[in-house]
Amino acid sequence: MNYKQKIIYLFIGLCLGILVMSFNIKKNNVPLANGELPIISFLNGSITSNEYYNTLKENSGISILLDLLDDKLLSKKYQLNDKELLTIQEKMNDTINYYIKYYDTNEQDFLNTAGFKDKDTFYNYLIIEEKRKLYEKDYLEKKITNNEINNYYINKLVGDFEIMYIKGDSKILLDILLKLNNGESIQNVLNDKVTYKNLGYISFDNDTINSDIYLDAKNLSENTYTTSLRSIDNEYYIIFKGNVKEKDPLESLKNRITKKIVEEKIKNDTNNLLYKEALINLRKEEQVTFNDTYLEKLYNIFTQ
User: Is it the case that residue 294 has pLDDT exceeding 90?
Assistant: First the structure.
């Protein structure tokens, strides 16, 4: 069961639980100055039963308790800039348009099916998710050991190296490949029917280059090229690896290696176990306590 499915099941349980919440408030729960009872407390804040109920009522159960809680906790740690918010908005629109195009639906039907009452609700949910992911990265970076960094440096890291490629029609590229195999230079085989690009020296953590192109080039020996065509994103390539530089000293690369290790860990975390672990840590870090025993039991089940 994935994270989103668990949220949906949790919401169903919480809706039922609301009927009995008043019987489960812990006896030592002290009302706030405005008279409302907090159902969850954390460092410098709380969530009241009225606030929680209004969230359920207004958002059809999507912005449920954990979204409401994590939003408060993470808003103290992360402020997204205009560029990041615009990227989230574009991601939201791309997702909606994809489903409209390929699943014969419309915007509101998609939102209803996904459990969002409107685009604003969807947008706010994506903002919370982005902040959760930022916290996950920061949490995992603190856990990376020197041994992991050393192993990555010795066994995985290579010095910066030149990458070039020729892109075009498969038949034309096969003819070019034959000429290259016969000893002709790159300059002599190029024509106006193909695209040639020299990407320059690329480092191990460069995120502007297609990862498939990088890995193909990395696996080549210095000053060689792929002996067969590479199909990447429905386009054909001949990929070249040029000169290779020496690796920089380990000490100067530790922070970059740490980020790369975390990136790979998250990519391989197909069951979202690290994501879940990070969020549990976030709530412990913020000393989250449940003042309602029913919600506390549901949360413990959810985080098992």
Answer: no
Residues 295/66, Cβ–Cβ less than 8 Å: no
The per-residue pLDDT for 40 is 74
Whole-angstrom distance, CA of residue 218 vs CA of residue 213: 9
Same domain, 128 and 170: no
**Integer Cα distance of 58 and 284 in angstroms:** 28
Give the rounded percent of residues in the chain with a pLDDT score beyond 90: 68
3 state DSSP class of 63: coil
Give a yes or no: residue 251 inside a domain: no
Tell whether 249 is covered by a domain: no
Count how many domains the chain has. Answer: 2
Contact assessment for residue 64 and residue 11, using Cβ atoms and an 8 Å cutoff: yes
pLDDT tens across 246-266, in order? 999 999 999 999 999 999 999
| Cα angle: 257, vertex 259, 261; to 5 degrees | 70
Supply angle C-alpha 276, 280, 282, rounded to 5.
Answer: 115
CA atoms within 13 A on the CB side of 204: 24
CATH number at residue 233: 3.10.50.40
pLDDT value for 71: 94
Please state, in angstroms and rounded to a whole number, the distance separating the CA atoms of residues 241 and 220: 6
**CA separation for the pair 39, 294 (Å, rounded):** 10
d(CA 204, CA 257): 9
The whole-model pTM stands at 0.75
- Do residues 298 and 240 share a domain? no
Whether the predicted pLDDT of 159 surpasses 70: yes
Run of H or E residues at 188: helix 186-189
